[in-house]
Amino acid sequence: MPFRLPLNFLCVLLTLALANCQPSSPANAPTVLLQPTRPYTTQNVVLVVIDGVRYSESWGDTTLANIPNMGRVLAPQGVFHPQFYNKGVTLTNPGHVALTTGHYQRLSNNGSEEPDYPSVFHYYRQHTGAPATSAWVITSKDKLEILARTKSKELAANFAPAVDAGINGLGSGYRDDSTTLRVAQQIFRQHKPRLALINLRGPDSEAHAGNWDGYLRAIRETDQMVHTLWQWLQRQPYYQNTTTLLVTNDHGRHLGKRYDEHGDNCEGCRHISLLVLGPDVHKGKLATTPRSQVDVAATIAELLGVPVPKRDGEPMLELFK
């Protein structure tokens, strides 16, 4: 009598064969982690995002008329990046999400949609076990409260940072940048966060209002605020000589006389800036490797020793000594 395999065993073999013929699912693919490459003196990171500044009115102006503090006083202390870009959607919320998650996402710009992935703030808290008050999102625009949230089902999503956005959170309206800077200093004094984002809205709001003189004035005001913040941090024992400051933009503006709007692929909307200061940063150096917003989250994680999933960006190791 010929040998026959049991029917149930044949079913198992058929199931395995069919499974092996299916393409692997990205959802089931192993997560690639970006691991920090070495220890750093940096213990704290502050990311300042100056909203909606066109390169031509800031670093692209060789006179540095609107950014005398950053251009002449701070840049010699750190690294300036002349080839830094928003390569995603050139709007406020998508730009900030790219900076904090390392992922370019097309999402609503009014605060009604949350990021797909956790931010470096979430991963920092998850990795260190630090309380929410150790990582802060502090913004003049209320709609940026979404930076403390995510639609992700990852474990890191449970480790949201603290947030102080707009007048009183999402839907409450915008507040003055001077108020945001004062709130940030209060938070630094009280909670001593290791990681913070500060959004300054002035240039973007004035440009949208079609106020050219107000737009330039707001750039000068935020330039002074960045200088004031850096000096203040260096006077605080908790932050002195252990803090890295990154100053950048979420987007630029249309070229020419269309400065009042932004949102497309033009050079004016895409070309933004990055200034980095801190104990591990080269002094008075001009970066030469083209970079974009999604490299910021990975760079923050590198400095703080936090492994993060590989997204669209990578650490900017060339900035460091």
UniProtKB/TrEMBL annotation:
- List, alphabetically, the InterPro entries matched: Alkaline_phosphatase_core_sf (IPR017850), Sulfatase (IPR050738), Sulfatase_N (IPR000917)
Q: Secretion signal: which residues? A: 1-29
Instruction: Name the family the entry cites.
Output: Belongs to the sulfatase family.
Per UniProt, the keywords (alphabetical) are: Hydrolase, Signal
User: What are the GO MF terms of this UniProt record?
Assistant: arylsulfatase activity
Descriptive protein name: Sulfatase
**Chain ranges of the Sulfatase N-terminal domain:** 43-306
| Pfam families from the UniProt entry | Sulfatase (PF00884)
The lineage's top-level taxon is Bacteria
